[in-house]
């Protein structure tokens, strides 16, 4: 099994790459058409069966110790195909990227075609998409050195100048909202609120260099050293915080187990699970 | 509007301007002084990487992208610099499309600065879409089968740094640099089953969740946000250099103090106006 897979999975170039690409497309489309033409009730059963089998593999591989398998030397045979399963899941997940692009094309394509309100924003999506795609491909694959260099410059401007800066800007806005929200919402109206605020202030100071500077006049060792801001902050993090985090983690683990079982056994209902595929 | 009300209702645009100024000044001034204190978890992370045998490779798993670049990039750079300085080979694995390019640029820059070579001292495995658990579980069994080629499509078997990496036995440590809680996948599927050291480098906001794992020994060290990166720089002998991490550490100091002052001012106004309301005048807001 593994050797067959290795033969399939080795990188191909030239006409072999083209044959493999066309073959994968034909097989993929055929499976998709077959699944689409299947009546909904059977389709649901197929999806449930595939989900169950995929989950069963991981349950058996992860939970059954090698000693329980009647093999010498003791080993779990399912573990041996783990790299193959990892590659297969990578391929399936990659389809999600394509699905995302397809979805964006559909939504923004419709907006541009209808010329509705804000259609130019959708047009901007297409322009930026093809600009960075073209520059990226030309940068790596153009045979002409001049064209390749020009594409690299354009790619750098688009990637570093626009894309990463825009992404970072979106995230950085949170800082401004946090400051405004902390100022407006943090009001000491009860003992609990006062405790929370004191703990927050100590942690905020303990985690930055200025905290250590504030109480630097206190000794590094001995009884008084326990009053240093970084010591109090560390105690808060490793005692009350850790207890709370453990409790939350246990709760999440139990909830995840229940949720995982429901999805594995196709018992889950509601959005995304009940709708006709 | 009296002073008490004003203390509670400072215009948000004024706050935005002030916080921008408070953060910008240390970043522009770039002080070289690094934090005086080095946390125990940062020191443990450093010592763990110091102990990695030379015949083993370190996996740097980067989940971050430009959104958390300010915190995760200094951590990545500090770890890369340390590994290159001590001659430990490493591979970078990126789970974010944009982060893949950024981590490659970072490693290339530090590598050429230290006179190291791509392929011999380090390798970039490119962007991987996931799922993390399947890949992590698989690479413990066969590194070469899960990551067949590097980011340029070159076979890992033909690259000197990765030629002899078979499975978990050739992996000396894993460093997870992430803005989220992805470390649990490494703990469950790789580091616990195969007993490989794990270092966690989260954004500061996520670090509180890691203390139970540090306490249980499932994590061997942690770089707590950009402060952790600045402390790590101190350990690798960069304590007098004007780095971004050091500047960011002081920018965060100023920002935290500014926020505390604002909260105190708001509460002062609230408490005073509450007292005057009881006496028959004033107005409580908030």
Class computed from helices, strands and strand pairing of chain A: mainly alpha
Taken as a percent bin, the fraction of beta residues of chain A is under 5%
Q: Determine the fraction of residues in helical runs of chain A and give it as a percent range.
A: over 70%
How many distinct folded domains of chain B?
Answer: 2
Radius of gyration of chain B: 23 Å
Protein structure class of chain B: alpha/beta
Known CATH architecture of the largest domain in chain B: 3-Layer(aba) Sandwich
Low-confidence segments of chain A = none
Spatial shape of chain A:
extended
Tell me the span between the first and last alpha carbons of chain A.
32 Å
Straight-line N-to-C gap of chain B: 15 Å
Query: What pattern of helices and strands is seen along the backbone of chain A?
Result: HHHHHHHHHHH
Describe this structure in words.
The complex is a heterodimer of chains A (277) and B (286). Chain A has 277 residues and is an all-alpha fold. Helices cover 77% and strands 0% of the residues of chain A. Among the domains of chain A are: 12-80, no CATH class; 190-264, no CATH class. In chain A, helix 5 packs across helix 6 (119-141), helix 8 crosses helix 10 (229-238) and helix 10 runs parallel beside helix 11. Chain A is extended, with a radius of gyration of 28 Å. The model of chain B has no long low-confidence stretch (mean pLDDT 90). Chain B has a six-stranded parallel beta sheet, sandwiched between helices. Chain B has 286 residues and is an alpha/beta fold. At the A-B interface, helix 5, helix 7, helix 8, helix 9 and helix 10 of A face helix 2, helix 5, helix 6, helix 10 and helix 11 of B.
